[in-house]
């Protein structure tokens, strides 16, 4: 009976159990389950090492464990190693722990057009920004610029990943918000980010990693101006579909996962 789950601290807010549960139900995967695994940082390593013996085939990893997940893995994909973080662990025969980062290919899969030859501006320089910058660069974006509230952090990320740091926003094909701005209070978004609502119209596509009940201020401003938008739940679905495929070897039922993540009952 293969078990799956999401390791985080806290993890009560995660939509991953509903999303993966919907995938398991849609495919009729007998005996498979997906659960929340709330684990404080000091217990992360010993908990993960006990999972294969408890019947787990794999797990997603979220805040604050993504770096620790990579550190304890026996082997890892180039993406996880170069990004420096893993969001997907797979437990293989013999007890080996394999680490992957599906945030990067998930970002590319969520875009309405391939990023090759396109320009991109990434807001933020934390963990998710690293995966997004790496993904855009690897996918052949012509220019990737990074802005961050704390400029030194953007400069370090840009130097490490071979892109450029910027002090202000500029028009580009793709805008990705990788800051946590908008998570708790939509009213402060355009005070905390280096652009106003009208400026969202300068992008062909806007991705906001933040998800909440209802649209974020960035998503609604961009949609009002005819910009193609990808919200945080769609990003969650795309990275989750790739994790699901890595564990089960079966093509992920993306629509079922989308409905599960959004709380839409199956039809
Ligand atoms: P980190 O904590 O690693 O980074 C946070 C980033 O947000 C930093 O760049 C930080 O800037 C910036 N920031 C925080 N507060 C402010 C503010 N008031 N004004 C301007 N910038 C601010 O977080 P992650 O990169 O892991 O995640 C970022 C967001 O993306 C979170 O909201 C998270 O929920 C979401 N996310 C969504 C996913 C999904 O599946 N949809 C997956 C992963 C993340 P500074 O360096 O100056 O502190």
From TrEMBL:
Under which EC number(s) is this enzyme classified? 1.1.1.25
Has the keyword NADP been applied to this entry? yes
Q: Does the keyword NADP apply?
A: yes
Name the Pfam families on file.
Answer: SDH_C (PF18317), Shikimate_DH (PF01488), Shikimate_dh_N (PF08501)
Provide the residue positions that the database annotates as binding shikimate.
14-16, 62, 87, 103, 211, 239
Q: Which CDD domains would you find in this protein's record?
A: NAD_bind_Shikimate_DH
Please give the catalytic activity noted in the UniProt record.
shikimate + NADP(+) = 3-dehydroshikimate + NADPH + H(+)
Domain named SDH C-terminal: which ranges?
Answer: 232-258
Q: What is its pathway?
A: Metabolic intermediate biosynthesis; chorismate biosynthesis; chorismate from D-erythrose 4-phosphate and phosphoenolpyruvate: step 4/7
Which positions does UniProt annotate for NADP(+) binding?
A: 78, 124-128, 209, 232
> Which parts of the sequence belong to the Shikimate dehydrogenase substrate binding N-terminal domain?
6-89
Give the main EC class: oxidoreductase
Q: Which UniProt keywords apply?
A: Amino-acid biosynthesis, Aromatic amino acid biosynthesis, NADP, Oxidoreductase
Role, per record: Involved in the biosynthesis of the chorismate, which leads to the biosynthesis of aromatic amino acids. Catalyzes the reversible NADPH linked reduction of 3-dehydroshikimate (DHSA) to yield shikimate (SA).
Write down the PANTHER family for this protein, in alphabetical order: BIFUNCTIONAL 3-DEHYDROQUINATE DEHYDRATASE_SHIKIMATE DEHYDROGENASE, CHLOROPLASTIC, SHIKIMATE DEHYDROGENASE
Per the record, the similarity remark reads: Belongs to the shikimate dehydrogenase family.
Its subunit composition reads: Homodimer.
Name of this chain's protein: Shikimate dehydrogenase (NADP(+))
> Which species does this protein come from?
Paraconexibacter antarcticus
């Amino acid at each position: 009976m293969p078990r799956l789950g999401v390791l985080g601290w806290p993890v009560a807010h995660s939509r991953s159990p509903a999303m993966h549960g919907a995938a398991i139900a849609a495919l009729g995967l007998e005996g498979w389950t997906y659960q929340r695994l709330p684990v404080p940082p000091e217990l992360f390593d010993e908990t993960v090492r006990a999972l294969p013996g408890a019947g787990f085939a794999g797990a997603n990893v979220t805040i604050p464990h993504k770096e620790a997940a990579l550190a304890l893995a026996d082997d890892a994909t180039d993406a996880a190693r170069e990004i420096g973080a893993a969001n997907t662990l797979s437990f293989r025969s013999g007890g080996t722990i394999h680490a992957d980062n599906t945030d990067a290919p998930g970002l590319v899969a969520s875009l309405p057009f391939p990023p090759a030859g396109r320009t991109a501006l990434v807001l933020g320089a934390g963990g998710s920004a690293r995966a997004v910058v790496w993904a855009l660069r690897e996918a052949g974006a012509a220019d990737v610029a990074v802005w961050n509230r704390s400029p030194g952090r953007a400069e370090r990320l840009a130097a490490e990943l071979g892109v450029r740091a910027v002090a202000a926003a500029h028009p580009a094909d793709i805008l990705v918000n990788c800051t946590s701005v908008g998570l708790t209070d939509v009213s402060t978004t355009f005070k905390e980010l280096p652009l106003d609502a009208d400026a969202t119209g300068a992008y062909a596509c806007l991705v906001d990693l933040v998800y909440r009940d209802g649209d974020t201020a960035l998503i609604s401003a961009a949609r009002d101006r005819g910009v193609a938008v990808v919200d945080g739940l769609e990003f969650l679905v795309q990275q989750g579909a790739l994790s699901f495929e890595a564990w089960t070897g079966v093509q992920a039922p993306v629509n079922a996962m989308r409905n599960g993540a959004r709380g839409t009952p199956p039809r």
